[in-house]
Amino acid sequence: MTVPAPHPPKPESHIPVLLDEMLTALAPKDGEVFLDGTFGAGGYSKAILQAADCTVYGIDRDPAAIDRADGFNSEFPGRFTILLGRFGDMEALLHSAGVDRLDGVVLDLGVSSPQIDTPGRGFSFRFDGPLDMRMGLDGPTAADIVNGWDAEPLADLIHTYGEERRARQVARAIIAARTEAPITTTQQLAAVIRKVVRPSKDGVDPATRTFQALRIQVNDELGELDRALEAAERLLKPGGRLVVIAFHSLEDRRVKAFMTARSGAGPGVSRHLPVTTAGSAPAPFELPSRKAVKPGDAELRRNPRARSSRLRRAIRTDTPAAGMRAT
Ligand SMILES: C[S@@+](CC[C@H](N)C(=O)[O-])C[C@H]1O[C@@H](n2cnc3c(N)ncnc32)[C@H](O)[C@@H]1O
Fold first, then answer.
1. Are residues 164 and 96 part of one domain?
2. Is 255 part of any domain?
3. Is the dihedral of CA 239, 244, 249, 254 positive or negative?
4. Residues 6 or more apart from 147 whose CB is under 8 A from it?
5. Closest Cα partner for 39 from 11, 67, 73, 13?
6. Which amino acids bring their CB within 6 angstroms of ligand 1?
7. Ligand 1 geometric centre to CA of 87 (Å)
8. Which of 43, 84, 89, 229 could lock onto 16 through a cystine, CB 3.0 to 4.6 A?
9. How many alpha carbons lie under 13 Å from residue 84 in its C-beta half-sphere?
10. Is residue 70 pLDDT above 60, yes or no?
11. What ligand 1 atom has the least distance to the C-alpha of 42?
């Protein structure tokens, strides 16, 4: 018996994760200016604009997300601007809109539900679609990597960005399959991976980690994140809030490392105290807490996709940003 392929959900729906927690951390006030670096379906931007009489600039690299901003101008006249581009380029994008200082930056990393649930975008192996995975519609696709890279860099990619223990076997299986015919769809690739990786006990599909690795590479997700964190440090005013929501541990570790390093919070400080730089060299951020905020049970029941989300926040001090200090 063949199991029918699941119908993709209505791709327009996206339930914002950790929404209340994001608003508490960003604490918008009247007259302030914010960047929502990952506009997506606009859930965060809308909530920020409703929370205070403030201004929001939204960035997204996906033209489909930009289309979803239609209507924001009439709903929030003079208070919202959408910008197409990468958040790693936030300084240039904001400068082109005449903005050079911000009271808050929020980044809700990863892909949106409309992206995952649109088979033609190629992010999910739950539906068959072209092996694409580009959030913006530029640059090499996942198919270019899968069909073009040599075995060793392919295995390294799957190991490093997918944290897949059987990365070498997956790379070898991909090379063997593609010598027969190019791998062009999500379900073809998932079938190749499932031949060499067994399902885990918690039911995670064997293809999950390799798909994650490809998506990170196709979209340079970690490079984008590094550039964005540094740009946010330069753009935020003293007292400005940086709020980042990550969905996988590679991103969350990077955010944590950045915030820890830039707040001067070395090891040995109590985990239960707010982290300040008192007594040490001045640092560009303070951490209200070292701990990430996780979704509660009620949110997980409402939105199982929130499962692995982690929110971290930092507050800008008046110390000049790295690279902008007098020597
Ligand atoms: C998780 S969704 C954001 C959802 C949004 N917070 C909401 O409430 O609707 C992430 C969005 O960020 C965008 N994105 C991811 N990386 C990006 C980057 N480097 N530059 C710009 N946009 C990016 C994706 O295209 C996607 O639309």
1. no
2. yes
3. negative
4. 178, 182, 183, 184
5. 67
6. 14, 16, 38, 40-44, 59-62, 65, 86-88, 108, 110-112, 135, 224
7. 9
8. 43
9. 11
10. yes
11. 9
In the predicted structure, residue 269 carries a pLDDT above the cut 50: no
Q: Which of 31-45, 117-131, 256-270, 278-292 has the lowest mean pLDDT?
A: 256-270
Check: CB of residue 225 under 8 Å from CB of residue 295: no
Atom of ligand 1 nearest to the CA of 88: 19
Q: Which atom of ligand 1 sits closest to the CA of residue 60? A: 22
Among the three residues 155, 189, 218, which one is the final residue of a domain in this structure?
218
| Nearest atom within ligand 1 for CA of residue 41 | 9
Could you tell me if 62 and 92 lie in one domain? yes
Q: Which residue, judged by its Cα, is nearest atom 22 of ligand 1?
A: 60
> Of the candidates 166, 189, 218, which is a domain's last residue?
218
Position 32 confidence tier, pLDDT thresholds 50, 70, 90:
very high
Task: Please check whether residue 322 lies inside any domain of the structure.
Answer: no
- The average confidence (pLDDT) of the chain is 92
User: What's the average model confidence in pLDDT over 263-279?
Assistant: 57
Same domain, 208 and 227: no
Looking at the structure, tell me whether residues 34 and 107 fall in a common domain.
Answer: yes
Q: Is the pTM of this model over 0.90?
A: yes
Locate all alpha helices (DSSP H) within 219-319, ordered by sequence.
221-235, 249-262, 297-302
- Look up the domain containing 173 and give its range: 137-218
Cα 4 from Cα 314, distance rounded (Å): 47
Lowest-confidence pick of 138-152, 253-267, 304-318: 253-267
Ligand 1, atom 24: nearest CA belongs to which residue? 111
Pocket test for ligand 1, best of 39, 59, 305 (most atoms within 8 A of CB): 39
